[in-house]
Amino acid sequence: MGILKKLFGKKQPKKPNQNVKTSKDASKKSSSQPMDESIERTHATADPEENKHVQAYHVSRNTDETSDYYKMWRVRKAHSDKTIKHFKTQAEAITYAKTLAKKHRASLVIHKLDGSIRKQNYGSN
Question: pTM to 2 decimals?
């Protein structure tokens, strides 16, 4: 036997601290004990559709004189600066926006030449 082994003996593996909870302990505890009733009730009654932001598409005329698409009709998502597609006529833009709104269960807002709203919540059903 070596001198070091005689002095220090055989090293014992470290035991984890019983007071510190590991992720394994937490998962065991959560699976074996029921959730707090108030939290469980909240999740059970929450409607997932309530939390979704209602999306809308806008049909408007491009008024940016520096743009290559100046005075063309465009389709955009609400609160977005990015144009989805440009069209020569408002009717073409409305037809395209209707298909998007129907596909994504969103509403459609149609603007006049001056930018005011011509029709709102069009096709949101």
Answer: 0.55
